[in-house]
Design goal:
Blueprint: H1 3-6, E1 10-15, H2 22-35, E2 38-43, H3 57-68, E3 74-76, H4 89-100, E4 106-111, H5 112-116, E5 132-137, H6 147-153, E6 172-176, H7 184-192, H8 203-206, H9 218-225
Parallel strand pairs: 1-2, 1-4, 2-3, 4-5, 5-6
Bound molecules: adenosine-5'-triphosphate.
């Protein structure tokens, strides 16, 4: 048997992770299990599609490291932070594909909203030449694709359970994950108001108040440590 057949897929979840929260971690774990894949969280340094993060790249990485400590199912891949300029996913996929070869499955994981906005991404049509796209899909939410996106992907949908039969890239599938209505925006707002983020963020992050300083007023740090 060739090594490619036995190799687990590589799945990546990109994002600003400003900060990473248990919604991200839980869906990443569920996707990794559903695909029996290696899973890497990949923070973006200068995300092209949205406003700039509140925390710096190194502050966000420090939070990610604390969040991932003590387990080895989810990994951190900080390559986009060492690249100058904007973080384009197409560049990352090309680089990863060069590293893993043509035969290993590569899966770009996207939240439903991120997927539905795909047609505004830089060189988006090329993404599927390098990876599959796995949509983290929460029960009860339909996919609201624009016409351009729908025409590009509608013939490529497969079921998440059949990924292994469909080559290393080029397909689109939904992965059912838990609906956790947690957003980094809401957590930043909570911290700004001096609220306590426990049970929204991993304990290791909450327990090290210095990690959340970028988001906090002094009242917030007091609330967490108090
Ligand atoms: P913000 O509120 O700052 O926009 P976010 O958490 O929505 O933060 P990112 O950090 O960029 O944004 O998210 C990374 C990826 O995780 C995206 O694909 C996003 O759709 C997905 N995601 C974010 N929150 C959840 C959640 N609670 N459940 C499932 N997927 C999520």
């Amino acid at each position: 048997m060739s090594p490619s057949v036995t190799q687990a897929p590589l799945a990546i979840l990109g994002g600003t992770f400003d900060p990473v929260h248990i919604g991200h971690l839980r869906v990443a774990l569920e996707a990794a299990d559903a695909l029996a894949s290696e899973l890497r969280l990949m923070p973006a340094s200068v995300p092209p599609h949205r406003e700039q993060p509140v925390a710096t790249a190194s502050q966000r990485v420090a939070i990610l490291r604390a969040a991932l400590a003590g387990q080895d199912r989810l990994k951190l891949d900080a390559r986009e932070l060492s690249r100058s300029g904007r973080s384009y996913t197409i560049d990352t996929l090309i680089e990863l594909r060069q590293e893993i070869g043509r035969d290993r499955s590569l899966v770009l994981l996207l939240g439903r909203d991120a997927f539905c906005g795909l047609s505004s991404w830089h060189r988006w049509r090329e993404l599927l030449e390098h990876a599959h796209i796995g949509i983290l899909s929460r029960p009860g939410h339909a996919l609201d694709m624009d016409d351009e996106l729908a025409s590009q992907v509608s013939s490529r949908f497969i079921s998440a359970t059949s990924v292994a039969d469909h080559g290393a890239f080029g397909k689109v599938f939904e992965i059912a994950v838990s609906a956790l209505e947690i957003s980094a925006t809401a957590i930043r707002e909570l911290l700004r108001r001096g609220g306590n983020p426990r049970y929204l963020l991993p304990d290791a992050v909450v327990d090290d108040a210095s990690l959340l300083m970028p988001y906090s007023s002094s009242r917030a740090v007091d609330a967490i440590s108090g």
